[in-house]
Write a structure and sequence with these properties.
By secondary structure, the protein is of the alpha/beta class. The protein has twelve helices and 14 strands. Helix 6 (122-146) runs parallel beside helix 7 (193-212), helix 8 (251-261) crosses helix 12 (366-377) and helix 10 (312-325) packs across helix 12 (366-377).
Length: 394
Amino acid sequence: MNALILGGDGYLGWPTAMYLSKRGNQVTVVDNYMRRNACTELDVGMLYSLPTLQERAKIWYKKTGFEIKVVIGDLTCPEIMRSLFNGTVEYQWAENYSYSENPDTVFHYAEQPSAPYSLLNYKYANKTLSNNLLVTNNLMFALRDLSPETHVVHIGTMGEYGTPNIDIEEGWLDVEHKGRKDKFLFPRQASSLYHTTKIMDTDLMWFCVRMWGLKVTDLMQGPVYGLETEESALDERLGTIFNYDEIFGTVINRFIVQAVTGYPLTVYGKGGQTRGYLNINDTLQCVEKAALSPAKSGELRIFNQIMELFSVNEIAALVQKVGISLGYDVKIQQLENPRKEAEDHYYNPIYQGLLEVGVTPHYLTEEVMASMFKLVAKFEKNIRKDVIFKGIKW
């Protein structure tokens, strides 16, 4: 596979790059450090510092002999996006600087990924809208004009669906109305501006698939947890971005950091909010399996990318149990919910498609959580309690 990873510096993008590279694929990553720069601008903590993409690619090459080409650029600029498909790309690091042919698969992670960030104020809302939609639009036009056979694997979000009072199908819904039947995208009702941009992504890609015969797989992903993969374990410097603040940190990751540092677990409201979760290693499996069995021309294929369901209360209880077993004094604190969201709701999503294409799930056992505790504990001195919770409201 010739793989192009947009957002290759991110929490999921960089592990995907190593995962695919180790399996013999040609890999190019593109990023503009938006996530890193946002962490600096907002003064939120990362668990550990990271080398640049160029430095990480060099470390990876030295450790494995596999090349990951690096492009630093803002993909909201259409010409930078198009350079990745027309032979004019400028690499910031590559062992072999010759241009590869157009990618077989584009893995699209290049989006601002945080609901709280998108609602800090109108300026951050604008950044979220402009980045997420322009990147996707630029990609669609580049493919139409320069590489229509390339398959896109896009990371969407289960947050597009909201919490409807019916079962959530995998992207599509058969509707019968007044004696007639048709198939529609499952109704979306996001609870943040970030999630709304992801709905717009799905609609934009569906338009381009219908009009231009493009090939897209949209993965509706739940919150991801974990900080180590088989590849990152080769060298500490190959780790991925790991946030524990309320803006960029996901709930399981945040709770484990809070437990390690003695900060009460921040349960919002009643804690009944239920979502689908998956291990970071399952994200890697999912995107690879989606790429190896691509969508057809003119198809928008949708998978719900989750492996198991938990409420926030269930996660907090498991973190507390494991933490206490490891000698930590873990307390749970219920806070007034700063978010507008249903806390008691029906939630029953279907998630069979990725299992059917060969994904083998990792489950959140006490042993898995204990291993995360031990990894986080190595960096306990870096944890800043002042960035864990500031009460961003919407």
